[in-house]
Amino acid sequence: MEKTIKRYFPIFLGPTFAAFIIGFIVPFLMGIYLSFCDFRTVIDAKPNGIDNYIRAFQDTDFVHAFGFTAAFTVVTLVLINVIAFAVAMVLTREIKGTNLFRTVFFMPNLIGGIVLGYVWQLIFNGILARYDLALKISAKYGFWGLVVVICWQQIGYMMIIYIAGLQSIPGELNEAAEIDGANGWQRLWSVTIPNMMPSITICTFLTLTNGFKLFDQNLSLTAGEPMKQTEMLALNIFNTFYGRVGYQGVGQAKVVLFFILVVALGLIQLKMTRSKEVQQ
Amino acid sequence: MSKSKKILALALSAAMSLSLLAGCGGGGDASGKPAGSTGGTSTPAPAGSGGASGATGSVYYLNFKPEQDGDWQELAKLYTQETGVEVKVQTAASGQYETTLMSEIAKTDAPTLFQVNGPEGLANWKDYCYDLSGSKIAGELSSDDFALMDGSAMSGIAYVIETYGIIVNTKLLGDAGYSLDDIKSFEDLKKVAEDITARKDELGFAAFTSAGMDGSSDWRFKTHLANLPIYFEYEADGIGDTAAIKGTYLDNYRAMWDLYINNCTCAPTLLSAKTGDDSVAEFVTEQAVFYQNGTWAYGDVADVGDENLGMLPIYIGVGDEASQGLCTGTENYWCVNKNAKPEDIQATLDFMYWCATSETGLEYMCSGDHMGFVVPFKGNLESGNLLVNIANDYVSQGKTSVKWCFPTMPSEEWKNVLGSALTAYAADQTDANWETVRAAFVDNWAAEKSK
User: Fold this and answer.
1) Least confident of A61-75, A217-231, B306-320
2) A95 contacts chain B (CB < 8 A)
3) What is the ipTM of this complex?
4) Which pLDDT score, from 0 to 100, does residue B52 have?
5) Does residue B197 sit at the A interface (CB-CB below 8 Å)?
6) What is the pLDDT of residues B152-200, one digit of tens each?
7) Mean pLDDT (whole number) for B400-408
8) Would you say residue A145 has pLDDT above 60?
9) Shortest CA gap B291–chain A (Å)
10) A46 shares contact with chain B (CB less than 8 Å)
11) B189: distance to nearest CA of chain A, Å?
12) How far, in Å, CA of A181 to CA of A175, rounded?
């Protein structure tokens, strides 16, 4: 058996590995190289040092997009996780129709981001039009509109992960705590949550990186209006790269900065929540 | 396997499927490669066709105009039938041309024929433009003004001349008690529009269609309307381009914009959500009298009936309004990709020449049933496009056409910033917000030009 695996592993590993190289490693390395170049299309690059990085930092819209994205991520991180956790708690009780509810909560995930953004844009504008307002006239509306859309989309997904986590906590633990006289809150804080830390790690990681990487919904819901005030990092990078003549290199430099930022935040967050995980 | 590991495995596989979904959401346009156009060209030999000079190349045209996509596809098919040369036409989504071109041209199977919108667009693409001087198609141009020059190289050739102004539903105008002859200046237009607004409930229609600032419509104001203050400033200063615009006629621009947004079908705060289709629908369903757009929109508004359609110059209260005509020019230049294979370049040049000279080509480009263009070639046919004929009437009456100066606008970014500022001002019409528009117009012009 071992021998067969050894002999045939290229067949199993090869295609995926090739796809990974073509689809990830090569563009990634090319991207880093291109961030130090002046170029129009990826085949005519001329190196120009760190010029692109200097111009990226001089771009006030980029800095604003960073602040907006950070605020958005913090808000959605908290909201999504708290609500998803609460919903998961409710739906692991023995009440009628839990499966139906789980399905319904999960369903928004099955819709792609662009479609979702446009559908919600119609909904928001439909409501706001009654007051002679529109989504794109104020950054405030744009911000909360995005928060609503993302919460609606992601709560169900995180809920599934939390439900799986809740169901894997041995019933004895809670029973023992109950016998020892712990009330509901004490059981939640001292038994359930510590045992849920692996799920919480995953969910916070996902919501954190999703928040920073958000693009589709931002593009379709507000497109950065008004005056780029609701432009998030990914959209800012896209607009720099595709929207401006001679700014392709700057866009590429922003991508590299963006990558470093997301990786750093992800690692810090993983370290923080991992340290709280308990061994069963 | 401990339970926490199980959860982890579950969560990770869930994460993978999520990113797969995310992938679906993003890359809708990535697969723009129609079947049958892969690498090895297997075009049938040009059986008995004289002019094809044994071409074995193929043509890939990246078309800019979504409204003419169907016609180009048909024309390409006819050309293939006639000569055996394969022509692939792909159309970029509205407002996505530069993005599409940027990704398409880096492919092995790059477009052989693409377009730029004038000097500013050329600056980005000049390294890709084949020098068309001395080509057969260049010889067909009715005037050298329609060639786009980069130094001594002819980088682009205009293929359509267009005209815009304010399209009028003369029947509704009549219902309101006016005729086209009553409007000879900005003051007249303002008086009529404000009178219609005052009697909006009684009349059942508004003066202007919504000045939508959605991406499908905002170019009518951030580019086309903005052309007027630029044109008059250029005229006053006797120049054709400038590194620093002064904004001499910005107050007139503001007055016009105020007129549009406060006399249209909806509240000005709603304009940010209004699309180009909304405007067309309002005009065709007789909810508004005036609709700023050009000859290319004839197909959209033809339902109103030729007898009910008229056009007015965009008066902004500057210069000699009595002799002001419509805005005529071009921002559509064909460029041939110089990095394409020599046989493909030849095939592309042949295709262009065929479009501009053959009976079928001209029929498709000029006839009102098809593209309805005015083409700057010697073989131009009389147009079946009513708006084009109205535009010609203005010229024959001796009115001075307003030139298209917007190809000299500094960049797409400049237009976008101006558009956002106009939207913000429409929602809240304060002097402070107009100051943002002014800054977007004047300060950003210099900033973008210097980049």
Assistant:
1) A217-231
2) no
3) 0.75
4) 42
5) no
6) 899 999 999 899 999 999 999 999 999 999 999 999 999 999 999 999 9
7) 89
8) yes
9) 22
10) no
11) 26
12) 10
Amino acid at B229: P
Residue of chain A nearest B103, judged by CA positions: A41
CB B195 within 8 A of CB B320: no
> Mean pLDDT over all residues of chain B?
85
Q: CA A224 → CA A65, A125, A140, A232, B62, distances in Å?
A: 9, 16, 12, 7, 28
Residue of chain B minimizing CA distance to A207: B15
The pTM assigned to this predicted structure is 0.78
Specify the pLDDT at position A98: 86
Interface of A with B in 12-31 (CB under 8 A): none
Say which residues have a Cβ less than 8 Å from residue B334's Cβ, sequence separation at least 6. Answer: B113, B114, B115, B156, B157, B158, B159, B352
Contact B98 A125 (CB under 8 A): no
How big, in percent rounded to 5, are the helix, strand and coil portions of chain B? Answer: 50, 15, 35
**Spatial distance between the Cα atoms of B238 and A96, rounded to a whole number of angstroms:** 80
Which token pair is B364?
Answer: 């498709």
Instruction: For residue A184, give how far its alpha carbon lies from the nearest alpha carbon of chain B (Å).
Output: 23
What is the mean pLDDT of the segment spanning B32-48? 37
DSSP secondary structure, B360-409, as one string: HHHHHHH-TTTT-PBPSBTTPPPP--HHHHHHHHHHHTTPEEEE--GGGS
Cis peptide before A226 (omega within 30 of 0): yes
